[in-house]
């Protein structure tokens, strides 16, 4: 024992390095062990769903998974196979996996849409956008069918904005993925709004989070460029962006319509068709009844117009602050003041990396159901639409309220209802 202690003392540098390496290895192995325990617990919970008896005449529920293997820098496929796929198969679902890295996806989607009970999107914000783009190429009847199918979202991408609304926060990636997969099996859903963003010639782009245009977005895109600065990379990206012309102004013209009243929800089950004699009676009564008066002319829409000069403009859905009991449908337009100091710009930029659509104090906030953004000729730069980059151009943004139903964790739904009551 004395010789071992003497050797460690004489070679203290190697001993220190070995101790650090051993400590790191132990921590890594313990983390792997905890991840396996999480997977086992999730699989046991899913097995309870798979063991439930179903009538012999009732077919298995069919789930179509749209997996983007390129998400999370190419790690999404492995994350799905290790954490989500076993849970889905143990639950008794008939699972079909469609990878979204090949051509002809719209045709494949058309073939599967008629014969699926639920859709699961495994990826990030870009995968959600891609699926919407493919659906938009299909016929109107298929689009209507798509909007009625419940959708599950398994967060595998680098940016997963939807996960903040649908699932509890978790710093453990394995726990976050397994919680999201189990939420699909539990069956609780919430309606989410969608933004339809259409340029003059382009096909519409759909967003469940929103659109950003301005200096904070431009600086945020360059954060990964300063990876070598570690935790200071966010502040560095915003600091170096202040070396450009200051203050940074983005000028445009905005036309918008106010909020619309929310119609009552349609019943999930359609009423049964009345008997033949009732239908004949109704048709004869409508034929012999007096002619109906012509409807009055619809009043023209009351558009508001605004000239703006801002450091950043954002148009966002209310999905992040979901209120299941509100009586009006609208999107939030945030026009931030251009008079921002460089120090405040760097500080606020770090906050916007955590919550991109936050509207700081002193900004002009507008609630609208539809808007038209006109940009000056020769405007350069890019939009950020659900964290995907698009060329800046004049666009019309239309709110599609409660367009899709997403599976969510029952705890999150309960929190939403409690917040609405308070």
Automatic annotation (TrEMBL):
The keyword Transferase applies. GO terms for cellular component: mitochondrial inner membrane; mitochondrial intermembrane space. Belongs to the AGK family. CDD domains: GATase1. PANTHER family: ACYLGLYCEROL KINASE, MITOCHONDRIAL, SPHINGOSINE KINASE. It catalyses: a 1,2-diacyl-sn-glycerol + ATP = a 1,2-diacyl-sn-glycero-3-phosphate + ADP + H(+); an N-acylsphing-4-enine + ATP = an N-acylsphing-4-enine 1-phosphate + ADP + H(+); 1,2-di-(9Z-octadecenoyl)-sn-glycerol + ATP = 1,2-di-(9Z-octadecenoyl)-sn-glycero-3-phosphate + ADP + H(+); a 2-acylglycerol + ATP = a 2-acyl-sn-glycerol 3-phosphate + ADP + H(+). GO terms for biological process: ceramide biosynthetic process; glycerolipid metabolic process; sphingosine biosynthetic process. PROSITE patterns: DAGK (PS50146). Pathway: Lipid metabolism; glycerolipid metabolism. The lineage of its organism: Eukaryota, Metazoa, Chordata, Craniata, Vertebrata. This is Acylglycerol kinase, mitochondrial.
């Amino acid at each position: 024992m004395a010789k071992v202690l003497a050797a460690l003392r004489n070679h203290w540098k190697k001993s220190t390095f070995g101790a650090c390496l051993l400590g790191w290895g132990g921590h890594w192995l313990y983390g792997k062990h905890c991840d396996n325990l999480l997977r086992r617990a999730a699989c046991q919970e899913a097995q309870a769903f798979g063991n439930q008896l179903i009538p012999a005449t009732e077919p298995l529920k069919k789930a179509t998974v749209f997996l983007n293997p390129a998400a999370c820098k190419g790690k999404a496929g492995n994350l799905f196979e290790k954490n989500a796929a076993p849970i889905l198969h143990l639950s008794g679902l008939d699972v079909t996996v469609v990878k979204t890295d090949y051509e002809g996806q719209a045709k494949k989607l058309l073939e599967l849409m008629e014969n699926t009970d639920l859709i699961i999107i495994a990826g990030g914000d870009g995968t959600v956008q891609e699926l919407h783009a493919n659906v938009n190429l299909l016929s109107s009847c298929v689009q209507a069918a798509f909007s009625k199918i419940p959708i599950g979202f398994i967060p595998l991408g680098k940016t997963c904005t939807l996960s903040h609304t649908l699932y509890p926060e978790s710093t453990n990636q394995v726990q976050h993925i397994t919680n999201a997969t189990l939420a699909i099996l539990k069956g609780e859903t919430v309606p989410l709004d969608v933004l339809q963003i259409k340029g003059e010639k382009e096909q519409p782009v759909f967003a469940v989070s929103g659109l950003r245009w301005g200096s904070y977005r431009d600086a945020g895109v360059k954060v990964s460029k300063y990876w070598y600065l570690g935790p200071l990379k966010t502040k560095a990206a915003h600091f170096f962006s202040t070396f450009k012309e200051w203050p940074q102004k983005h000028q445009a013209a905005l036309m918008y319509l106010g909020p619309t009243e929310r119609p009552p929800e349609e019943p999930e089950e359609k009423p049964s068709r009345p008997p033949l004699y009732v239908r004949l009676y109704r048709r004869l009564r409508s034929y012999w009844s007096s002619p109906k008066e012509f409807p009055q002319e619809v009043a023209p829409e009351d558009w508001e117009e605004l000239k703006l000069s801002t450091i950043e403009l954002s148009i966002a859905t209310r999905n992040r602050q979901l209120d299941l009991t509100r009586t009006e449908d609208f999107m939030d337009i945030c026009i931030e003041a251009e008079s921002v100091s460089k120090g405040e710009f760097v500080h606020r930029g770090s906050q916007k990396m955590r919550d991109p659509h936050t509207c700081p104090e002193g900004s002009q906030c507008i609630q609208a159901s539809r808007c038209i953004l006109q940009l000056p000729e020769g405007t350069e730069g890019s939009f950020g639409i659900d964290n995907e980059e698009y060329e800046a151009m004049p666009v019309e943004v239309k709110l599609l309220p409660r367009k899709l139903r997403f599976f969510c964790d029952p705890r999150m739904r309960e929190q939403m209802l409690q917040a609405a009551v308070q």
